[in-house]
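Loading example: each entry is read as four labelled lines plus one structure line.
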Amino acid sequence: MYEELKYWYLRDHKLFRTLSFSQIKQLCIITGFKKASKGEIIYFSSSDVPRIFLLKKGNIKIVAVDDNGNETIKDIIQKGDLFGELTLETDNKNEEYAKVLSDDVAICSFLMSDFEDLLLRNPTLAISYTKFVGLKMKRIKNSYSNLISKDAKTRLYQFLKDWAEKEGTVNGNSVTIENYLTQNDIAQIICTSRQTATQLLNEMETNHLLSYNRKEIVIQDITKL
Amino acid sequence: MYEELKYWYLRDHKLFRTLSFSQIKQLCIITGFKKASKGEIIYFSSSDVPRIFLLKKGNIKIVAVDDNGNETIKDIIQKGDLFGELTLETDNKNEEYAKVLSDDVAICSFLMSDFEDLLLRNPTLAISYTKFVGLKMKRIKNSYSNLISKDAKTRLYQFLKDWAEKEGTVNGNSVTIENYLTQNDIAQIICTSRQTATQLLNEMETNHLLSYNRKEIVIQDITKL
DNA sequence: GTTCAATTGTAAATTAGCTGACATTTTGCT
DNA sequence: AGCAAAATGTCAGCTAATTTACAATTGAAC
């Protein structure tokens, strides 16, 4: 029954829908499970054998540390997202780790080499996977060109719109987002200083565009952003 | 013999090294050839059937036009690079075109659907291709995080180093680059204003770091950048 | 050779946003 | 409850780089 559970955990991701039961089982044999709670740090890049991870529950942020010890948020991973060495290529110089943002997370993982084997035997999956990586690339390109050509305000608005679309609960024109990020996190994501982010958020609050607190963000009218 | 030629054209790219003659021939049947000269604009995103392109000779820039009609340089493609819908996914809302930078270019292309068929029959190629797309993604990530966290000067230095490494002719510590870009192009690539780029380049010239003209750039000592 | 457009050079004014430096509030913890 | 740590609020410089504005140079076309 444990096997069964794992099966469904993987099956859930749209990438694996096309796989037969036995194929998933093959991956499952080496599938690892992990639970973690808020604030915990999960190392995944170096040391261990290269793995691909699937976040089953909760939210995490991928943080990179540069030579000066500065932390930068690379990515926010949500329930259902894959992360890790998606390029099937290991690079060890990469100092990245994941930090748990929600109360707790469930992560399932498998070895990159096993996945590669599976892709070899499953060309359709290989194509789906390529498209998946491509989509990811397109998203990254998009958000980066936002970062570069737009000012901080526009970037914040765009970020909030994206966030609302991905995770918000809609209620007419109003959208409610469960807020698991600090203002500092938000600032890092939109690449600005914490102070600027605070200012902009307060400005939006006085303009009745949204109401902000540490639990949730309510956007009064998403069409006005 | 025309067939033969095309074979070698494709064969040249390291992605296709693992393919058999017949497999390449299969692609070649639908391979298109194109020649174009300086300043010419090549549309490749919309209208036509989705294709993947391989630049065999010369240099082009990929330019995107936003809603306000502003042009941004998305990418510089060099001899041997693939471009087009590398993600195997068409998106039509994308307003992109290529502009020829060198005196003339040779481009060879094939249909995305044919390539997809080939990938299906060739899992090894599929994996290579996935890794290739992944590598591209990693490069993009890298250059973007440069754009975001570094100042204009550092960005210019990094760009020149990259350019020199890719295309420069080394002579001891000195490197000569054939300059097919205007200062405005360079400015756009490193995401700054034309004036700032000009200033920085002149500053480098007075500091004897390089000599610049419209034909070539000579970096006196690449290790000093 | 002359003309015109593109490219390059230079400088002052303006500005978005960062830094640093605090005060205040909230949260988790024992 | 009471404390420390984390998160938020606010403000005054400061700075890199954009904008605006124009001059000078180069190159290609006729």
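Chain B has seven helices and twelve strands.
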